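Subject: sequence -> structure tokens, single chain

Hey, anyone have a minute? Need the predicted structure for the following. Not urgent.
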Amino acid sequence: MKRVNVKEIREFIRRWVVDRYEDRNILNLVLNTTKLSPAALESLQEIDLNFTNYTPDSQYFFFPNKTIEVCKPTEAHANGIKEYDPGADDLHNYVWEENVIQHRFKLLPDMFSISQTEGENGYTALDIEIHSVKSHFFGYLINTSRLYWREETETRFGEDHEASDSYIRTHPFCIEGEGLQPNEIAEQKKNLINKIFTFGYMLHRYKDYARVWAPLAMDNKIGEEDECNGRSGKSFFFKVLSFLMKTVKLSGRNPKLMDNPHVFDQVNQFTDLLLVDDCDRYLNLGLFYDNITSDMTVNPKNNRSFTISFEDAPKFAFTTNYVPQDFDPSSEARSLYMVFSDWYHQKTEDNDYRETRSIRDDFGKTLYAFDYTEEVWNADLNFWLQCCRVYLTLKDTGVKPQPPMGNMEKRHLKASMGANFEDWAEGYFSPEGGHLDDYIPRDEVFNEYQRFSNVSRITMQAFTKRLKAFCKLCPWIDSINPPELCNAGGRIQRTVQVTPEIRKTKDMVYIRSIPLDTKFATKTDATEQALAFENEDETPF
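Reply:
Had a minute. Here:
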């Protein structure tokens, strides 16, 4: 279906008369009649057409040569993809012309398969087996999931750059490369499954109150404080989604974006995706939460505001070069985290990359440009539909595949404490500093940091948060204030001699080091630690 105006209707009838070689009087009648005026055409009979392209368990995709229904595999549809020819009697959906994907579709064999196994405590473990990488987009997803590519392609070859380059050429899209440990391969597969699931989730237009998430794409690389990595291909993921969905893009570089009362003025009930791209470090994502999980109010300029129901409101997505400020339970419940490796990167004087690598370098062409052939388009379309099928297969299992969050936790901890505090703490709590495995008055530690940093406007609560972050990250520290040393109130208190005449009970800090025989060993996986330590109250250690 397409929208037409009065001029187009009049021209259609005029052309019909001309093509039939009707008498000139007939043509003059058509040209002069009032029946084709705007007022008269308002009386045309109205009909209701079904433009719904989804159900709770399926999603329709429209192509010039056929319509495709994607659903969970069943006995009737073993592969979960059903094809309808034009004018099929068992399909009664209509589609706007602009929503037809303008490429001819031909079904291809599956490019991957994802299996489920029941692990401990009822946890569902997912594994992926790659059958072929005909889709360029699939190759891009694989490479952005290669978290340990440097260990795989550089470290193990040392200075033999020729051997390293040869390996990269012969293993262009490899998720389980040679030289990687089993746990590293498992993490990379987990990362890839997360991206496939997320892409499929976004393609399913149906919104479920119990499963409403906003993808949040981040860089995996750990940098210095305030370092903005980027160039890892995050935005390209959502650019591709915009080929299949009506998308509104907002710039997240402005930390006061939500102060604009007309921020959503481009959004309407036909918008499928609202992307907040390149979010600033201090942009408060919490201000979007109500719009993610409920109805959405739009306040257009020079017009009356209106509300879009939850079912018709767009899905949200965010990209950022920084680690989010708020890793709290509320954010985690609304977010579908995505982690992108630095396989695609920019070589500069300030980093140690050997080269600059872009998406174009992997494929020898700019993806989706004028020279993108119909054969390659079809391979990508097949992969995208297979991603949608993955989501529809998993959605009722309660599974929410998250990426490996170890580096995200480390980046969050480093951002929480800041470079200044980290420099002080590494010296004050060094193995040779004399402050480990001992009771130290908390106020003395606090005062020492203030003298070092020359910062006076810092609260004990903020200091506590930074110290806990340092202890979680430091490789030679086991814990801060072990539970067995604390009293019923969670404190460690000791009586100290303040002056020769005065003794006083003070809160203490006890930093336990890792034993010498295991020092500098790998600490507990960061993803198993609590992310929301900043929500703890003021109770001192």
